[in-house]
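Hey, can you fold this one?
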Amino acid sequence: MTFHWFVTAAALAVAVVALSRARRTARRLEQLTQLYWELRFQHGELRVQVERLTGGGPQVSQAPAGAAAPGESFIPLTSLKR
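Sure. Predicted structure:
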């Protein structure tokens, strides 16, 4: 009977350690996700600044004002609030 309590206590300890590690990993993932989106935002801002300094960037055919290139669009970080 004592052996069963020992196994139960060991399993509980392993579960607590696993839970704390999972929470820490989730917190780190959230930080990395936030850093990723901040870098994407900064990259977009810097790209716009470089285009302004170099004279407008690559020449694009005349498109309607609301149309964006497919596959490439800029979304400000402030619009991604949850």
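Helices lie at 2-54. Let me know if you want another pass with a different chain boundary.
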